[in-house]
Amino acid sequence: MVKIDILTLFPEAFSALNTSILKRAQEKDIIQINLINIRDFSKNKHKKCDDTPFSGGAGMLMTVQPIYDAIMSVKQDNSVIIIPTPTGEVFNSKLSKSLSNYEHLIFVCGHYEGIDERVYEIFNPIQVSIGDYVLTGGEIPCMAIVDSLCRFIPGVLSKDSLNDESFSNDTLEYPQYTKPKNFMGYEVPEVLFSGNHAEIEKWKKMKSLEKTLKNRPDLIKKDTF
Ligand code: 6GU
User: Fold this and answer.
1) Which residue from 124, 54, 50, 136 is spatially nearest to 88, judged by alpha carbons?
2) 129 Cα–ligand 1 center, Å
3) In sequence order, what E strands does 29-139 have?
4) Residue 82 DSSP SS3
5) Is the CB of 85 under 6 A from ligand 1?
């Protein structure tokens, strides 16, 4: 079982992780997701967890003490600490797959303008961004990262689901159709009913390449052709 501890000031934001495929994975004890409220660890009499930056500038920073104590309350010898931050390494399928191999992940979700740098100095966490734009906190990125890495944990998805999907071979997935064959005159491509597996494979490769060229030309290596 992969254990995932999520440290956050906003545990209520994470209900999406208890839905659908991840809900089932938790029920089957393939993964365990625990939400830990950082505020519970604040030694301030008002349970304060943020303060103004010494450098001046806008907004509030999360303070080191509550986060330090929250991490120490769950940290084991085999724990890997991940902090979602726009200044981190950009998340992708390869990083997602590598994170799925650990037994214990601790996510620390920053909010406001970020986290006191000493949290990074003390724990040397993996820092991950989900793209070149800024969100109001690490909660939504954390959910994206957890959802994605859990898909690589054996037993979470049905067998073969990972094989053809986008990014599994540096291309985007081909289009797919289901019933009915005809919807208001919009037809499913005839080749998919041909029974000719070689032709169908060729069609999938072409469509996949077409889509990648149109939407993500940066993914196509020069030696593809
Ligand atoms: Cl991980 N956090 C925040 N706050 N904004 C982001 C991000 C993370 N990744 C992209 N933008």
Assistant:
1) 124
2) 5
3) 31-37, 50-51, 61-62, 79-90, 104-108, 126-129
4) strand
5) yes
pTM of the model: 0.95
Q: Which CATH architecture has domain 2-158?
A: 3-Layer(aba) Sandwich (3.40)
Residue ranges of domains in the chain: 2-158, 164-224
Q: Are 211 and 220 in contact (CB under 8 A)?
A: no
Atom 3 of ligand 1 has which residue's CA nearest to it? 135
- Predicted confidence pLDDT, tens digits, the chain (225 residues): 999 999 999 999 999 999 999 999 999 999 999 999 999 999 999 999 999 999 999 999 999 999 999 999 999 999 999 999 999 999 999 999 999 999 999 999 999 899 999 999 999 999 999 999 999 999 999 999 999 999 999 999 998 899 889 998 889 999 999 999 999 999 999 999 999 999 999 999 999 999 999 999 999 876 655
